[in-house]
Amino acid sequence: MVQAAVKSANSVDQGRSGDKPWVGRSIERVEDAALLSGRGRFIDDLGVQPGTLHAAILRSPHAHADILSIDIEAAKRLPGVAAVLTGEHVKAVTSSLVVGVKAPVECWPIAIDRVRYVGEPVAVIVATDRARAEDAAELITVEYRPRGAVVDPLAALAPDAPVLHDGFPGNLASDRAFRYGDPEQAFADAPHRFSIDIKYPRNSCTPIETYGVVASHDAAEDAFEVLANFQGPFSIHTVIARALKVPGNRLRLRTPPDSGGSFGVKQGVFPYIVLIAAAARVAGRPVKWIEDRLEHLTASVSATNRATTLSAAVAADGKILALDWDQVEDCGAHLRAPEPATLYRMHGNLTGAYDIRHVKVRNRVVVTNKTPTGLNRGFGGPQVYFALERLVQRIAIGLGLDPLDVIRRNLIDAGAFPYRTATGALLDSGNYQEAVSRAVEQGKLAELKAKRDEARAQGRLYGIGFTAVVEPSVSNMGYITTVLTAAERRKAGPKNGAQATATVGLDPVGSVTVHVASVPQGQGHRTVLSQVVADVFGLEPKDVRVNTEIDTAKDAWSIASGNYASRFAAAVAGTAKLAAERVAGRLARIAAGQLNVEAADIVFTRGFVASRHNAENRIAFSRVAALSHWSPGSLPDDAGQTIRETVFWTPPELTPPDDEDRINSSLCHGFIFDFCGVEIDRTTLETRIDRYVTMHDCGTILHPGMVNGQIRGGFAQALGAALYEEYAYADDGSFLTGTLADYLLPTTAEVPEPQIIHMETPSPFTPLGAKGVGEGNCMSTPVCIANAVADALGVADVTLPLVPARLAELVRGVEPPPPAGRSTATRAREGDRRLHGEGQASVNGAPEQVWAMLLDPATLHSVIPGCQRVDRLSETHFRADVTLGIGPVTGRYRADVELFDLDPPRAVTLRGRADGALGFGSAEGRITLEGDGKGGTRLTYSYDAAIGGKVVSIGGRLLDGATRVIIGQFFTALARKAGGGGAAGGGFSLFALLAKLTSLLGGRR
Fold first, then answer.
1. Strands (E), 91-134
2. Chain segment 133-180, per-residue pLDDT in tens
3. Domain encompassing residue 746
């Protein structure tokens, strides 16, 4: 039926009397007037129902620990608090989230009995305002029993590694092997074999707007209404409904008009949708939660990190005969749907842009004590192409060949399209050789090589890097099922396709409205769709109004709906064209009767429906368009209504994996060829991009300005991945990059202007001939820059991000330890999060007086900075509550300190631990008291302390200074009290140290 309707619509001449079509023009963006004047409507801008409550989340400071107890009574008693939910409360009203593989494992949006990553929700506090909810969170006492943690995916597979889930023995969630062609024979016959080991690090997209959810529960109907800046895929709607224990028609999920960026990350808001909806159900009122930046960095999804060993069988001329992939994917603490999508999204494209017929693959998915992963721009592509394109350069160097010659020798032939890869992808169109030639010529590669030769002759570090990649777009929903065996897939039923949805409606005055089930995050959907539909109806884009909000209770959508995998131009805009063409075909039959011509003689042009052969024989488009409203009885019998047309489109090329595990992972495949020249400063080892050339074939270009904008945006994000950004974890799982002072993002000052070159080979599989273009440079740029840096330094291996410290180790070797005899107050090696310090202070009063002060609770309460309360449990055991601030945050801690090795009044050793919402710590120190001969006391102290949890991620650059301030505050207060001559109100040196230091010390080392 769809094909017949499309054929009918295509039979109508959509020409505009010689006018240039709107598609292909860089018209002014419809969205910009509001966005650039501060009138965007983001989730936190929208009003909420009266009585809406606000949520704050208490998060784990531990990477791995049992929850022994949670005391929420004090928090519940705080005025304004409506509800406090822990894991047991959430579990009572929800079900486990879907796990990405078949395994006896549960996955909850909040910790149940055990925490498995720093930042995992432990409690949700709902109150009349956010500040009150955060105050209540400070009153919750959680007792943890720490477990061993593992953060490296290869270490997670070790027999003695701590196990995160009993249902994932050995932390292995999935282990699948694949074989295509005859790779064993190809390796046996090949004259050369090259291998490379890659550890691709974690990084993330960092949108300007964080997660947001507003949820309410209708107890009468047991139905939920949720507003969230969720981007899709809307297959997750089913996951959310199942978790909330309601049928899909009782979960209304809406999106706001605008979203402040996503780049894939906002797919990861869905566990919080479940969590806040559960809170609304328990509280009996709507609940709003807006994530803060610290939460987003610490606990939202990041891209996967991957350990890859890639080997190639290679002929003497550099032709790659076979590939052997061994990939270990780290999906973090929980395998949440749709993961392991990042690993399998590229399965059909493991040979990249190259003609390689023999492939062997082993894919393992592991869990570690890190944030669960999700979709990030280019998901799967950066990890695959970094290994493949680094190996291509290694092959060239090993054989003494030019890397560009090796790339050209292996490219798929232009006459081979559509080309079926060994692993199953159907590459739709392209001429890769021509694209490379154009880039080399227009990008002036010869000039860049001459510049490199000149720089090297002067002793400068200059290199050139290349990369050629295929950019997949419009994901096949069935690719994720490749993680299952063929037998398991047959049992589960087929899953495939990439259904897109668009509705075109005409109102009673003939105005045109378009609605699509795709949530934009700044891509300009409304502008491009107005161009596409205006061309069909012979109108101007301003005559077409576009709505991109989604309301699952009212709108046409499918589980594939959403904005991901660069599907907008190829699938969504193309489907809008099909819907408009169906309506246009019916309008043509109506107008033909009124103009007394054949339907084939009708054209749509300049706001009129007219005869092709007599331009004066015409009728206003608005009049014909409104007829279904005003006079439906006068419509021709074969015309049908023209009020609204909805099209669901899915391409036939996207089939399920076959029994041999071949899968066409995506519908469209653009081509990118990049090269760049970089110079590395010999002194600072900072990498400077001298020139970056990027050639793109994304099929038909719908809006050139926005295509270039997408390329620039992807390039900027990729530059961050290459040179600055990394989610860093200490060995115990503490997160080390929880602020934008530690997780470094490139700014406009660091991002050079790339030279963008285009070539168009339209896709035969999409209605507009368009392919995706939004993710490609995230796939190509990191490895292109890495290849250039390796060329500049003459090294075989480089690891991202290419920060100067890492390059210094390559150029100068590992920095030696400081010579003996230096100050003992030095930091431990990086990752230890430890601090050692020592010092002295002078206190008025004899040692006996100071000693008495040290054992007096009233003294402790008086002089410990931020102390709220001190309790004496025994003569040598104290417990205190303190409130501390580091940088942008303040937290409450409970410190437990014991005294031992007492030598009154000369010396004492103290050992203690502090726990709080911001982290945990432990410390031990020795205090000695010695009379100074003038009636006073010289107090000498030394300590060792370590900390973990959130404070490590937010205070790494502040902890040393804060420690000195806190110690200084303590001794100042102690001296003041001692100077007053009374024991009451005196101070406790290392207790203050421990109460403060144990919760503050450490940081990124």
1. 114-115, 121-127
2. 999 999 999 999 999 999 999 999 999 999 999 999 999 999 999 999
3. 380-476+664-813
